[in-house]
Amino acid sequence: MGNLDFNADEHDDPISFDVMPDGTVIDVEIESTEQKDNSAKNGSYLEIVFLCNDGEHKGRKLWERLNLWTERDDDKAKKMIAMANSSLGAICRGIGKLQVSDHEELVGGCCRLTLGVEPAKGDFPARNKIRKVERIGAAKASTPAPDKPAAKNGGKPAWSR
Asked: Which residues, including other chains, have CB under 8 Å from residue 5's CB and lie 6 or more apart?
């Protein structure tokens, strides 16, 4: 038998695995990517692991699975692949890599994610889903200043009448 020699009192409590609230915005780095076979063995998906690198959720991970490859040729499969390609495009734009030839090129890329919550289904608990991907440091859309009303009294201040 192996020697474990472990004392739990010497280690911090683990990071919470609760679902992050709807609308949470986190800055992440892509920690890893891997192409995996789907459970039906008729295609594969790209699994992307994001690591939150700041704020109250620092250290949390988020997994995104993109169904990019399948042997099926039905409308549902085509829609699934189109959605996955759209999501991958958003991630690539978010990390500033518009063309990639290997999924490993995504690793180390940083972006900002806005999260939603997918409710629990059957045996599966609620989980976070990506709603929006942005570049970190991208200029935020500013609200234009409201137009000033037309000047009265010939443009003179009201007190000068």
From this structure: none
pLDDT interval class at 138 (50, 70, 90): low
Tell me the residue ranges of DSSP E strands in the chain. 25-37, 43-52, 61-70, 110-118, 127-134
Place of tokens 């192409």: 35
Is pTM beyond 0.90? Reply is no
Distance of CA 75 to the CA centre of its chain: 27
Domains and CATH numbers, the chain: 17-138 (2.40.50)
**Residue 75: strand, helix, or coil:** helix
For the chain, the 3-state helix, strand and coil shares in percent, each to the nearest 5, are 25, 30, 45
Question: What would the pLDDT profile of 73-105 be if each residue is shown by its tens digit?
Answer: 999 999 999 999 999 999 999 999 999 999 999
DSSP secondary structure code for residue 71 in this structure: S
